[in-house]
Amino acid sequence: MQPILANYTASITELKRSPTQLLKDAGDEAVAILNHNVASAYLVPSALFEKMTETIDDYYLSQTVKERLDYKEEDLIEVSIDEL
């Protein structure tokens, strides 16, 4: 059985009828859109979507930082300030 990853649910019919009301009722949370009692999509308020994308960006940035900090001493190149 597929888990529903939201506290609020609505059918596709309810979504068609009043998407604005669904978002209003859910507040700042996502709404699982069900098709035959299976989550087929999630309706996410813009503020939550922005927060999610910032979190994902931060995660990928932290992965890049970890990769770049994982170096060997022999990989370092010594330069003088004048060469820059």
Poorly predicted runs of 5 or more residues: none
Structural class: alpha+beta
Strand content: 15-25%
CATH topology: YefM-like fold
Backbone CA Rg: 23 Å
* Helix percentage: 40-55%
Adjacency order of strands in the biggest sheet: 1-2-3
> Would you list the SSEs in sequence order as H and E?
EHHEEH
How does the major sheet shape up?
3 strands, mixed
Q: Given the C-alpha coordinates, what overall shape results? A: elongated
pLDDT averaged over residues: 94
By CATH reckoning, the class would read: Alpha Beta
- Give me the count of strands: 3
What does this structure look like?
- The protein is an alpha+beta fold.
- The protein has one domain: YefM-like fold, CATH 3.40.1620.
- Helix content is 45%, strand content 18%.
- The protein contains three helices and three strands; from the N terminus they run βααββα.
- It has a three-stranded mixed β-sheet with strand order 1-2-3.
- A hairpin with a 2-residue loop joins strand 2 and strand 3 (38-43).
- The longest helix has 24 residues, at 46-69.
- The protein starts with 7 loop residues before the first strand and ends in a 15-residue tail after the last helix.
